[in-house]
Amino acid sequence: MKEMQTTYDPKDFEDRIYEKWMRENCFRAEIDPSKVPFTVMMPPPNITGKLHMGHAMDETMQDIVVRFKRMQGYSALWLPGTDHASLATEHKIVEKLHEEGTSKEELGREEFLRRAWAWKEQYGDAIVGQLKKLGSSCDWSRLTFTMDEKCSKAVREAFCRLYEKGLIYRGSRIINWCPDCRTALSDEEVEHTEDAGYFWHFAYPVEGSDERIVIATTRPETMLGDTAVAVNPSDERYKNFVGKTLLLPLTGRKIPVVADEYVDPEFGTGAVKITPAHDPNDFEVGLRHSLPSIRVMGDDGSMNELCGEFAGLDRYEARKRIVEKMKELGLLVKIEPHSHNVGHCHRCHATVEPIVSKQWFVKMAPLAKPAIDAVVKNKTKFVPDRFAKIYFNWLENIRDWCISRQLWWGHRIPVWYCECGEVICSREDPTVCPVCGSTHLKQEEDCLDTWFSSALWPFSTLGWPDKTPDFNYFYPTDVLVTGYDIIPFWVMRMMFSGIEYTEKVPFHDVLIHGLVRDELGRKMSKSLGNGVDPLEVIAKYGADSLRLSLVTGVAPGNDTRFTEGKVEAARNFINKIWNASRFVLMNVDCDVPAFGNIRLQPADRWIISRLMATIREVTVSLQKYDLGIAADKLTDFTWNDFCDWYIELVKPSLYGGDPEKKRSALGVLIFVLENILKLLHPFIPFVTEEIWSFLPGERGNIISEEYPRYNTKLSYKKEAKTFEGIIDLIKTVRAMKVDVNCPPSRKVHLFLIAEQRRLVSVNKQSILRLAGASEIEFIEKGEQAGEKTLSHVCEIGHLFVPLGDLVDIEKEKERLKKELERVTGEIARADGKLMNKNFVAKAPKKLVDDERAKKEKYLDMKQKIEEQLRLLDD
RNA sequence: GGAAGUUUAGCUCAGCCGGGAGAGCACUUGCCUUACAAGCAAGGGGUCAUAGGUUCGAACCCUAUAACUUCCACCA
Description:
There is one protein chain. By secondary structure, this protein is an alpha/beta fold. It has 26 helices and 29 strands. The strands form ten sheets. A four-stranded antiparallel β-sheet has the order 6-5-14-16. It binds one RNA strand through β8, β12, α6, α9 and β25.
């Protein structure tokens, strides 16, 4: 039999184990009617780059849940994939082309797409590699890319259905335009920041008079597109202006003064220039007053041909020139600093321009309603549930979704325009116009928003719209794991899409996690350069340590800080398990009896009792997605109970020379270790699998083992409680020795007045070893343990330890007096409660009983301490 | 202008149904005890942000306040 290395080194086996899992098809989810399916769709990472720490946490959480469910006997499918990330990817490729001295226009659509697919191959593979390094147990046979044929088919189906229902329309609306990416954006893709700017006050002259009206604007360049000035109808200052005509400076265009409630008289000058083509509010005002809409800016953010001398200028250059010009004309009244909310493209951070443009939209109101209802009715639950509020907030205030993008990389909109004017939306590429028979059809140039295909992810991956066996078996999915920042982009859209297309919610639970921040609590970002590469951490500490560190001490939905110290702590814990396992295995030199055939000793029953309690707590926590609590319980049990206590307690049995005792001890050790490894496997899959392979006997992979189950017959609650008296005894002796500076090597003689002599006797060797004692001697009440003796009342009885020269009687008296004080205080506290009639009457009976028992215990302690004090006084 | 979150040990954070405040790291002391110094043992350290309220009983529930964080919102 091969042996375990003396130190834990994950590099020795992580890759090898992953290959083994792959080779043996351990991640493959089968359609098995005898099993219950459990489905998780991996949020497909963008192919724009490599995975960051946030992904690492997201994937780890999913893997933990999936491995847990798989071990529980579900047919667990974790379907992996990647996202084409239309805008983000195209942006990156365009940047790269720019560096190469070319452009997408120069290459043309076809060549550009060829490059994009090459990009996808490269980065998609890198991501898959990273996921494997992390230990992700996803079903690679079902790996999906959002532009795979099946997804494209689903996208077309979805688009056509909405189009046919009249829920998709094309129209000219104000949209968010990114002049750098040169595409429309949805509202969600715009980030607002409070930017410092100015308020320019311009005077607009009234036609045929000397009167002027002063407006304030933050975007002077848009004045070229003004088609009115609006004032509040109740504003006395401007009453006489309403209906008059103004001469728009720089253009001489005649524009009316209109009255509209939208204007806030308190803000600015109370008069607002109206530019319907370049401002969402102005657009609305324009509609109400039938104002023309004049677009003065091109797709690249420069002023267009309507702008006279400013034509061709960049928007900011134009702003400068216009302000100068207005000043020259004496129409610049004043400039005041003003900070306001400015929208930025969330991809390239360029300032977004609201622009009127012909785009495709999804009508949201009819889709939002059922998506809200589903969560209200608990068909889908958010964990933690407070995130439901954020979800509602979005859906309740939602506006129509602009889905067209002026991009090439993505799903091209399945609409064709015929020369006769017919618009054809089709699942198949049409060749002939159904109206005029023409074959001159042109497909819509625009692509769909990436999130349009992401919205279909829970079912497009399973073959929808076809009724595939996968779809029938695995859909709807069980849990979606993602960050709170993705709720508006994705969760919400999957919800209404799932309900609309499949008539089922796409998942029952949404497990929301927070962001992984840096050591100082800052968001990890490229610009700050504070990101930590998961692969580097894995290289140094191993994937298991990284995984464990990402879920311990983390509450659902809360942000967490990444520190190397946490990874180190996780590594140390894993090292502990490694060595504990090594210890157990190096003692195996005989057949280990089956657990059921072992006559259990009190210590055995204690550890098994603790094991059962742990199994129960961990299982409950995992079912509630409380991964942090589960990890915490497991660490505590493994390290404290198993390693620090149980292993030490059974060493005398291993070393004592009695083969029967040794065999039994080994049996229990192996049994508990097996359970620990299984319980921990979802968290730290590699090392548990590796250790598992060293355990004696024929066994398969731990990944395919059954998750431990709570067994009432093995709970031994009462016996475990009693056994804790032994632990308490050992701790007491240790503390006594430290208290008097007794060297650990100096063995002490223990005298004990106790009722449970048998329990003590059975564990005598363990007690001697762990307490650093030479002998335990039972004495009767009233009997003396000799001169210079320290005493302590512990759970199991009254302990006396003669320590000779180390004992300072006066100090011991002091200590006893203090102890007496404490105990007296405890009695008073218990009395305080028990004398309270309300407590006795209203508190649960168990609590009252417990309180009475405590009082009894302390009274007994008090008596013993007083006795001892009297003795010392004599 | 709305909304959510956070505030607990020196640091980072847990804390379930309300029933004697926890972990890791750091710190102090002693130990290389034949698995592990990435370790063992024993310790010190908290006005659970503040003020009220509900309750027999509050870190936990309610109200208000403060500080910080985040999301949303068209005030030109």
